[in-house]
Amino acid sequence: MEPVRKTFVIHNDQDREAAFLEMEQTVHSGISIDASLVPAPENLQCDFDSARPVVWMYPARDFTGYAMVEHDPGGNINHSHNSRGDWAACHACHALIESGDIAGLKARMIAAFGLEDEPLIQEIIFTQLDGFWANRTGLPVRVK
Ligand SMILES: [Zn+2]
Asked: What is the pTM of this model?
């Protein structure tokens, strides 16, 4: 069965939580969902550490990043984290990217999200980061 496509426009944390809850309930009911979480325009934030303002956009191809299988009593659930389109960056992340300081960028992301003790989430976001490096298509464009 084709997955249900759904776009969630995220204005705030409540929207984000509601989107995750709906995705969770959908997959656990046996329905595949292809969900996009899109920041509301006034909410554009850095794709690396969620800082504002966004100053740069990095052109990028769509890609599938981290994928995992969750073993649920109702059957296995395949999760994949896809990236669609360009990546937004704040000044600080842009500086780290342009200087090739990947370790510094990762440390910044971990600190920004408080993920020091979250190895699985670190693995997910670092896999997305690898995907970003592999799927960049050009020089960053200044947007602010
Ligand atoms: Zn940033």
From this structure: 0.81
